[in-house]
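Reading a protein record of the kind used here takes only a little practice. The record below shows the convention in full:
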Amino acid sequence: MKEYDVFIIGSGMAGMTIANKCASKGLKVGITDELPYGGTCALRGCDPKKVIIGATEVRDFAKRLKGNGIDTIPKVNWKDIMTFKQKFVDEMPPKIEKGYKKNGIDTFYSSAKFLSKNTLEVGNDKVKADKIVIASGSKPRVLEFEGGHFAKTSTDFLNLEKLPKSLLFIGGGYIAFEFAHIAARCGAEVTIVHRGNNSLENFEQDIVKHLVSATSELGVKLILNTDVTAIEKVDSQYRVKGKTEGKTAYFEAEAVFNSAGRPPAISDLDLEKANIAFTKKGISVNEHLQNTLNPIIYAAGDAADSEGLPLTPVAVLEGHTVASNIIKGNYKKISYPPMPTVVFTLPTMASVGYTESKAKELKYNIRVNYKEVGDWFNAKRLNVEEYAFKTIIDEETQTVLGAHLIGPHTEETINIFAMAIKTKMKVNDIRTMIFSYPTLASDIPHML
């Protein structure tokens, strides 16, 4: 039996933050991950995705300026961009392990299962700990219909040696849209099949419709109100069966990808043996990110059923909170600042704060500014067709409650809105700021 002050399941950003912070204070720490150290974001998500998108951004920019100073639209070399991407992925696990070794953290490379409230089976080892942290992240949703195993995952997409000529994505969330935009700009035929009435349902729909329009213009087929019920392999293709309004429809593609969501990766931990409370959203936690039934258990990141969005910076924030509470006792309550989130399509779509419907639900007296601004200078100089915003203003305090944008580099502009919401900056103070011009941020005063 190996014993620790703290043992962590999962070595993504939340687990890594907790491990290093606790070890720096002299605690004996162990950590395990059945996958290479680094977590989803660094190895199978945000980082490699953004590297690949970089090449498509160049192509998109050139296409928009063709005839306006640019003569040739470049092609994306899939093999080269994947090689470039892999450099970032390969360097991460050894870098993380080197940091663990320096801090005296014991490393394991197996899945974990609970044996009791404070003991685990980790591979061939048994581990006992005063505090155990579940930071196991999320995983692709299991497709339980016939042939569901034929669908590849987002990880598979990011590791494709060769891009298929045609792809179909099951589910209309941000993963489907981001990968659809990448594939379409690299020359593939792309279809998204979504069961709901609206894609990207958690985003402001007045802005989503602009992304849907841009996606359609790119040649991506978006099929709504259709439940996928089966996948069948036919020669070198896959036939996807769907039901819409009682009718059966079939779609064919060279590759099918599961983008139907990512539930917390907690189903194989045998949580019941440790009397750990959990929901379908993750490990149940209180304001200290401590489990509501078993007090020695903490959770952070995508594995926690918290108010935090499933975003890397949120996982880091929760990791710091958990580590502080383990080191000093439960003195620190989790507090979330505004959490900006981005769909990295082209154009990008970004959101922070309340949607209009949420602000109304909370009984705020609001003023809503919603406008399509393709005629603004920044849109015309970049030759973009989709540029729009929706801002939600609290009439009583004259502060920003929410901002929802689509257009060039909104992933950067949204951070200024996040800062304004966090600091409760007055609308008039934002309007009277001097922004460098002509930048995308210089449009912000006109959005208020």
The mean pLDDT is 96. DSSP finds twelve helices and 22 strands in the chain. The radius of gyration is 23 Å.
